[in-house]
């Protein structure tokens, strides 16, 4: 560490340790919740979250659908908190993610779903929070204090807690083994140098792209560009971008593309090369590209954990972009660490 490092950078470097702590301390709660849900055999899942936590839920949506063949839909908290509607959701599972567990709309929506018969699972960094109190099960993420406004440790540990829960539910030993090997891979990911890409992120609007679980990572990346660098970034599925948004791509337009070693990697790489051929500056976490720039990336041995390593490397880059622009990423303009909405 150096004095010039941001608090955000220090917390990025703490991610492997935070994940190790979760894997050491989180098992009992996760196994019990998975046993409970397996007995219920729910036909579908719902998620309740906002911001980075909602991006974690998008990741878990793909994991649920691809691993368990069970759809998972995001429910707008305002359905209950503003419109006063109680959904019919008996025998479902509600996954509510909130690092603080305190936002009134998240708590109110979760309480409503639990009272309507959904098994509510809270993924939070505060197991004494209001969210924990209205849920059937709480999965503490054990991230430790996160002082920078931008979520990094809590985003990564929220995804891992949720993936572990799904792996226990399915008895997926391969995914569980991959999760327990993550700390070393994430340590490697903190050392990936994305300086060339950072130099291209000069304040112009840009796209972030992904597909499947990597699209959730793309969403998180776009948010981090906005809140820590004051850069207008839009996230799209690599398929969706070709249905209209591609029209604004011009010479030098920055594009950051996330891809893991999954079934979507080849098609994502193809889109990366198409955009590069149109003049965009494209940087991608896949070696399958021919015209786009390959970013250093860590493969974790499992397609569902590869994108987690990519976001850790990205966090280091976005901290560098903020510094290049003379912005302190620890105190984003107009933002507080805990946002409470109704």
Write up what this structure looks like.
The protein has 342 residues and is an alpha/beta fold. It has 2 domains: 7-180, Rossmann fold (3-Layer(aba) Sandwich), CATH 3.40.50; 188-324, Rossmann fold (3-Layer(aba) Sandwich). It has 14 helices and 10 strands. The protein has helices spanning 7-13, 15-25, 27-40, 51-68, 78-81, 104-115, 130-134, 153-170, 173-180, 182-189, 195-200, 213-229, 265-277, 306-324, and strands at residues 45-48, 72-74, 93-98, 119-124, 137-140, 206-210, 233-237, 254-257, 281-284, 293-294. Helix 12 links the parallel strand 6 and strand 7 (233-237). Helix 2 (15-25) runs antiparallel to helix 10 and helix 10 runs parallel beside helix 14 (306-324). The longest helix is centred in the C-terminal third of the chain and has 19 residues, at 306-324.
Write the layout of secondary structure elements.
Layout: H1 7-13, H2 15-25, H3 27-40, E1 45-48, H4 51-68, E2 72-74, H5 78-81, E3 93-98, H6 104-115, E4 119-124, H7 130-134, E5 137-140, H8 153-170, H9 173-180, H10 182-189, H11 195-200, E6 206-210, H12 213-229, E7 233-237, E8 254-257, H13 265-277, E9 281-284, E10 293-294, H14 306-324
Parallel strand pairs: 1-2, 1-3, 3-4, 4-5, 6-7, 6-8, 8-9, 9-10
Helix pairs in contact: 2-8, 2-10, 3-8, 4-8, 4-12, 8-9, 10-14, 12-14
């Amino acid at each position: 560490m150096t004095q010039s490092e941001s608090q955000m950078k220090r917390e990025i470097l703490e991610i492997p340790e935070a994940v190790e702590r979760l894997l050491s301390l989180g098992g009992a709660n996760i196994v019990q919740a998975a046993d409970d849900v397996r007995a219920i055999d729910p036909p579908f899942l719902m998620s309740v979250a906002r911001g980075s936590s909602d991006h974690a839920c998008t990741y878990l949506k793909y994991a649920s659908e691809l691993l368990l063949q069970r759809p998972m839909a995001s429910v707008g908290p305002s359905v209950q908190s503003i419109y006063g509607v109680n959904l019919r959701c008996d025998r479902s599972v509600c996954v509510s993610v909130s690092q603080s567990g305190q936002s009134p709309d998240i708590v109110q929506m979760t309480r409503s779903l639990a009272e309507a018969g959904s098994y509510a699972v809270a993924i939070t960094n505060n197991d004494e929070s209001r969210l924990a109190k209205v849920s059937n099960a709480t999965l503490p993420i054990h991230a430790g204090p996160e002082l920078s406004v931008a979520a990094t440790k809590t985003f990564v540990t929220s995804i891992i807690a949720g993936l572990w829960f799904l792996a226990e539910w399915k008895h997926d030993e391969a995914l569980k083994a991959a999760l327990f090997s993550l700390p070393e891979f994430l340590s490697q990911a903190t050392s990936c140098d994305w300086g060339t890409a950072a130099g291209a992120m000069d304040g112009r609007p840009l796209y972030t792209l992904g597909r499947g679980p990597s699209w959730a990572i793309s969403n998180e990346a776009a948010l981090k560009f906005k809140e820590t660098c004051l850069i207008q970034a839009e996230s799209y599925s690599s398929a969706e971008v070709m249905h209209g948004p591609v029209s604004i791509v011009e010479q030098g337009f920055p594009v950051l593309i996330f891809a893991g070693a999954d079934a979507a990697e080849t098609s994502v790489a193809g889109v990366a090369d198409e955009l590069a051929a149109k003049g965009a500056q494209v940087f991608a976490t896949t070696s399958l590209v021919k015209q786009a720039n390959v970013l250093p990336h860590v493969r974790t041995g499992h397609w569902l954990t590869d994108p987690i390593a990519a976001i850790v490397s990205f966090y280091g880059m976005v901290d560098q972009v903020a510094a290049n622009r003379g912005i302190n990423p620890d105190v984003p303009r107009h933002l507080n660490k805990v946002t409470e909405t109704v």
